[in-house]
Design goal:
Bound molecules: adenosine-5'-diphosphate
Radius of gyration: 23 Å
Strand content: 5-15%
Number of strands: 9
Number of helices: 13
Structural class: alpha/beta
Shape: globular
Helix content: 40-55%
Mean pLDDT: 93
Distance between the termini: 35 Å
Length: 334
C-alpha cells in the first residue's frame, strides 16, 4: 500500500485517534481559516444558536474530519459522523437526524456522492430543521414532518465541482483547505512525536515534514515508520540519518514522491518529450484510469510544481527534469 497517498485508507491510520487535535488551539496551520471559524464559533455561542452549516473543501488527509470534530468540541455539542456512500436509503439519514440534539455537529464526508433522494431530504433538514417522513404505503401513504433540533451540518468534499449548487447554497460558511506549509508540517510532526513519546531531532522533523506532501495524515504515517526504523537503527531516537535511510528504503524522495509518481513524470519526459500529452493518452501509457490519474496522482504533482495542466494536455515543468536529474531534449518544444 502507498504511504504518501493519503486517500488510500491504511489500517494504521486508525491509530491516529490519539494524534487528532481536539481543540482549535491544537489544530495547527490553516491560520486564516481558523481565525474566521473561531469568530463564527464565538458568535454562535454568544447567541446560543447553532453554527451555520459548514462546507469543507480540500484534498484528503488535510484535516476535514478533524476540524468538524474540533468545531463540535469548541461548541460543546454532540458530534455525529457518516459519509455519503453510507446514506443509501432515506432511513439511513432519518436514523441519524432523529438522534440529533440541540446544536449537534453532523459531519457528512464525501458529500458530492449523495443520492438525489437523500439530498432532497437533507435540504429540508438544513433549511427548516424538519424531517420529511412517509408513513404507510400506496393510497393511504402520507408524509409527516418531524421537527428536529437546530443542528450544524458539516459537509466535506475533495471535489467541490461535483457538489450541486442547491446544496452548496445551503451552506453558510465555506472553508477551503490548502496543503500545509513547511513550518506547520514541522510543528505537526513535533506535536505527534510528543504524543507518541518518541524523541526526534529538529532536522529530522523537517525532513519528514518536507516529504509528506503538505498533508498531516502522511506526516503521521511517515513518523510512525521512522519510529520503527529508529528502533532498529538508533535505539529509538529519530535523527536525520534515520529519516534519510528510512525514506530511501521506502523509495520516497525529497518531495514525497513514490516510485509510481516519478514513473508518470518519466513517461511524459521520455515518451512525449515532456508533453503536452492528452490525459487519455497519458493514462493509457501509465496503465491507469483517467480518473485515477486526475484525482489521485496529478493534484500533488501539480501542487509541487512538477506538472502542468494546459489546454493541450499535460506538461512537465523544468523543475521536473531537475528533480529527476534528467536532461531536457533541446529539440523539445518546451
Ligand atoms: P480528512 O478528513 O481531510 O481526510 P483527517 O481529519 O482525517 O483528514 O486528518 C488526518 C489526520 O491528520 C488526523 O488524524 C490528524 O491526526 C492529522 N491532522 C489533520 N489536520 C491536522 C492539524 N491541523 N494539526 C495537526 N494534525 C492534523
Amino acid at each position: 500500500a502507498s504511504i504518501v497517498h493519503p486517500e488510500t485508507p491504511l489500517e494504521e491510520d486508525r491509530g491516529d485517534l490519539s494524534l487528532r487535535p481536539r481543540y482549535l488551539q491544537e489544530f495547527l496551520g490553516q491560520a486564516a481559516m481558523k481565525e474566521n471559524l473561531s469568530v463564527f464559533i464565538s458568535a454562535a455561542k454568544q447567541r446560543k444558536e447553532s453554527l451555520d452549516h459548514l462546507f469543507l473543501i480540500g484534498p484528503p488527509g488535510l484535516g476535514k474530519t478533524t476540524l468538524a470534530q474540533v468545531v463540535a468540541n469548541e461548541l460543546g455539542v454532540d458530534f455525529k459522523v457518516t459519509s455519503a456512500p453510507a446514506l443509501d436509503k432515506p432511513k439511513d439519514l432519518a436514523g441519524i437526524l432523529t438522534t440529533v440534539t440541540e446544536g449537534t455537529v453532523f459531519f457528512i464526508d464525501e458529500i458530492h456522492r449523495l443520492k438525489p433522494t437523500i439530498e432532497e431530504m437533507l435540504y429540508i433538514a438544513m433549511e427548516d430543521y424538519e424531517l420529511d417522513w412517509i408513513i404507510g404505503q400506496g393510497p393511504s401513504a402520507r408524509t409527516i414532518r418531524i421537527p428536529i433540533p437546530p443542528f450544524t451540518l458539516v459537509g466535506a468534499t475533495t471535489k467541490a465541482g461535483m457538489v450541486s449548487s442547491p446544496l452548496i447554497s445551503r451552506f453558510g460558511i465555506t472553508c477551503r483547505f490548502s496543503f500545509y506549509e513547511q513550518a506547520d508540517m514541522e510543528a505537526i510532526v513535533h506535536r505527534s512525536a510528543g504524543i507518541l513519546k518518541v524523541s526526534i531531532d529538529d532536522d529530522a522533523a523537517a525532513l519528514i515534514a518536507s516529504s509528506s506532501r503538505g498533508t498531516p495524515r502522511v506526516a503521521n504515517r511517515l513518523l510512525r515508520r521512522m519510529r520503527d526504523f529508529a528502533q532498529v537503527l538508533e535505539q529509538g531516537h529519530i535523527s536525520r540519518r534515520v529519516v534519510q535511510e528510512g525514506l530511501k528504503r521506502l523509495e520516497i524522495d525529497s518531495l514525497g514522491l513514490e516510485r509510481y509518481d516519478r514513473e508518470i513524470l518519466k513517461i511524459i519526459i521520455e515518451r512525449y518529450n515532456g508533453g503536452p500529452v492528452g490525459a487519455e493518452t497519458l493514462a493509457i501509457s501509465v496503465g491507469e484510469a483517467v480518473d485515477t490519474l486526475e484525482d489521485y496522482y496529478e493534484p500533488y504533482l501539480i501542487q509541487a510544481g512538477l506538472l502542468q495542466r494546459t489546454p493541450r494536455g499535460r506538461m512537465v515543468t523544468p523543475f521536473a527534469y531537475e528533480h529527476l536529474n534528467l536532461e531536457r531534449n533541446s529539440n523539445g518544444n518546451n
